[in-house]
Amino acid sequence: MKTRHVTRLLAVAAVLAAAATGAPSAQAATGTITGIGGKCVDVAGGASANGTRVQLWSCNGGTAQQWTAGDDGTIRALGKCLDVSGASTLNGAKVQIYDCNGTGAQRWTASGGQLVNAGSGKCLDATGVSSADGTLLQIWTCGAGANQQWTLPTTGTPPTGGPCPSGPFDNPLPTQNPTATKIKDGYNFLEGPVWDAASQTLLLTDMHDGSGAQNVQPSDILRFTPTSNTFATFVTNSGSNGLSLSRDGKSVIAATHDQRSVSVYDLATKQRSTLAASYQGHQFNSPNDVTVGADGTVYFTDPDFQRADRPDQMSGHTDVFRVRNGVVSLIDDSISEPNGIELSPDGRTLYVGGNATGKIYKYPVNADGSTGARSDFVALGGTDGGTVDCAGNVYQATFGDGKIHVFSPAGKALGTISAGQNTTNAAFGGPDGRTLYITSGSPSSGGDTGNYGLYSIRLNVPGWPY
Fold this sequence. Notes:
By secondary structure, the protein is mainly beta. It folds into two domains: about 30-150, Trefoil (Acidic Fibroblast Growth Factor, subunit A) (Trefoil); about 180-465, 6 Propeller (Neuraminidase). Helix content is about 0%, strand content about 40%. The chain contains no helices and 38 strands. The protein has strands at about 30, 40-45, 55, 65-70, 75, 80-85, 95-100, 110, 115, 125, 135-140, 180-185, 190-195, 200-205, 220-225, 230-235, 240-245, 250-255, 260-265, 270-275, 280, 280-285, 290, 300, 320-325, 325-330, 340-345, 350-355, 360-365, 375-380, 385-390, 395-400, 405, 415-420, 420-430, 435-440, 450-460, 465. A five-stranded antiparallel sheet has the order 1-4-5-6-7, with no helix packed on it. The chain has a five-stranded antiparallel sheet with strand order 34-33-32-31-38, with no helix packed on it. A four-stranded antiparallel sheet has the order 12-37-36-35, with no helix packed on it. A hairpin with a 5-residue loop joins strand 35 and strand 36. The radius of gyration is 23 Å and the shape is elongated. It starts with about 30 loop residues before the first strand and ends with a strand.
């Protein structure tokens, strides 16, 4: 539940204008293309349909911003080619993605920082000389404007696949057992922090005491702005617990116990939609924590902590699920009260904390997002939420002692970070990704009398935000 993007300034690649309809050669370069204002060239909505517009958007490491500049003149994303609609040569013709076909409308040459379309002789252009998110791209007569300057990935640069810089990395902790600094308290029960790189803010959940006939806990999503050190309510009555940012950075995925579902909140409109409502016709217990893979697969835990007085429809099980292409699949129904859930930076390992089992478990993740056989990672009681850093170290909150326990990918204990009385979760954020934010405090004894706060600490290794 966590997000940040490390911007990479990449030298301009020489893109040859030879026509081809096949895949780019092994010499193709893959990564982000950046333009005016440091914004990334982005496929709108992450959709791969023919005709999907191409725009500027804050860089987020998503697949919709990964472009392959081949030595055949094509620039590709999501399996499609960067294309001038209708092979037009007119100023203002829209730029889109389309099935690769080898025509001049899909061939581009890098020259002096510009991208010149072979079919029209016009330059790739950000409309209105704007760097705002959502600025559409077009072709226009080549000029000297910043809205026609582009930085391409260099040959041999591998796909970033996310926001982590290359290693090697040092010990993540400044000392073996440091203490985080309190930013602000006075909230009833904080959970689910996640970093929004586009706004450079932290989103987190504030849960209230149960109310109504079924004693369900209402909650709000808050937004913390570090530059002004201020908190504001972002979404009222969100019903959320754990949060994770979508890979395109445009929405927040929420484990929402109010509707016993997993929901998606659009960050621009705050509109809510349902990602997963049930499994085989049965309502979930109370989805708790969530993470998302590079391919969009969502993984979440479903203990019964916030089920309240609503009937059990899971036959006494507490479960771990995944959602891929709208289909909910069971990962594990044998962990008592699964809680925190995190993916390793390479996406090949899924970690799940067993709150009532005294263990953190790990699963190998297959190419299709499915998981293999479970194994024990480390023994640790009372686990809550967690996160990982770019070195693959695992950070696990334990509610009872107010600590974050840090383990290497091999399971070696590296140390602990102390925060408040009862720690619930953690997320990396900040411009360089090296600030760990922690939610911790004392729970309510009734009537919203909890006193939870947000804490932070600077670490030596940047974090993985998803």
